[in-house]
């Protein structure tokens, strides 16, 4: 489980969240994984690459979980 702190921001785009937490080597790879339906946000498959992830949401890729604080 990864805990990600948004700090002073309102949100982070989904593809960026995966990249900055090291789950993907690039934003392009993150976008492909999202498009393939491999990423879930709050338990639902998310296909929008630029989906705004906010505090309190949970993102899952494979067996990795990111909790946004």
Verbal overview:
- With 69 residues, this protein is an alpha+beta fold.
- The chain has one domain (2-68): Structural Genomics Hypothetical 15.5 Kd Protein In mrcA-pckA Intergenic Region, Chain A (Roll).
- The chain is 23% helix and 30% strand.
- The protein contains 2 helices and 7 strands, in the order E-E-H-H-E-E-E-E-E.
- It has helices at 14-20, 27-35; strands at 2-4, 12-13, 39-41, 44-45, 52-53, 58-61, 64-68.
- The strands form 2 sheets. A 5-stranded mixed sheet has the order 1-7-6-3-4, with no helix packed on it. Strands 2-5 form a two-stranded antiparallel ribbon.
- Helix 1 (14-20) crosses helix 2 (27-35).
- The two termini are 13 Å apart.
- The model has no long low-confidence stretch (mean pLDDT 96).
């Amino acid at each position: 489980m990864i805990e990600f702190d948004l700090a002073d921001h309102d949100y982070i785009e989904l593809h960026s969240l995966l990249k900055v937490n090291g789950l993907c080597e690039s934003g392009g790879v993150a976008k492909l994984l999202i498009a393939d339906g491999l990423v879930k946000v709050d338990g639902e498959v998310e296909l929008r690459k630029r989906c705004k992830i906010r505090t309190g949401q949970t993102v899952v890729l494979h067996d990795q979980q990111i909790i946004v604080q």
